[in-house]
């Protein structure tokens, strides 16, 4: 028997007709890339979901289109390096996460590389 996934898209719009957000659902839960937009139509964020949980690289943007933040989610928790940029697109901060908690750079470096590879988290 072949299991066919039925994808439904939930969407909402600003009064000006621009999209506000779009979320694919499979079997009643978010599954795919959830996107939100500014009222000018510019992408605000995109976060991949798997079976209702954030999983993968999420990106947030300024209303001018420049990347604001890039974070890695595994099973709904932040992992690895989160990069933060200013409105001009310049990297201004790096934060380190493990199992959803902020950790110091020193603790991040102490996590064995094999553990990082096995969880799908990179140093970059």
Structural notes for this entry:
With about 120 residues, the chain is mostly beta strands. It has helices at about 105-110, 115-120; strands spanning about 5-15, 20-25, 30, 30-35, 45-50, 55, 55-60, 65-75, 75-85, 90-100, 100-105. The protein has a single domain, classed as Outer Surface Protein A, domain 3, CATH 3.90.930. The longest helix is centred in the last third of the chain and has 7 residues, at about 115-120. The radius of gyration is 17 Å and the shape is flat. The protein starts with 6 loop residues before the first strand and ends in a 5-residue tail after the last helix. The model has no long low-confidence stretch (mean pLDDT about 90).
List the defining traits of the structure above.
single chain; mainly beta; Outer Surface Protein A, domain 3; 10% helix; flat
What proportion strand? over 45%
Q: Provide the CATH topology.
A: Outer Surface Protein A, domain 3
Instruction: From the alpha carbons, calculate the radius of gyration and give it in angstroms.
Output: 17 Å
Please, what is the average pLDDT? Answer: 89
Specify the helix fraction band: 10-25%
Helix-and-strand structural type: mainly beta
Largest sheet: 11 strands, antiparallel
Topology pattern, helix = H, strand = E:
EEEEEEEEEEEHH
Which descriptor suits the 3D outline?
A: flat
Number of strands: 11
Residue ranges: pLDDT <50 for 5 or more in a row? none
Give the CATH architecture. Answer: Alpha-Beta Complex
The number of domains is: 1
Q: What is the CATH domain class?
A: Alpha Beta
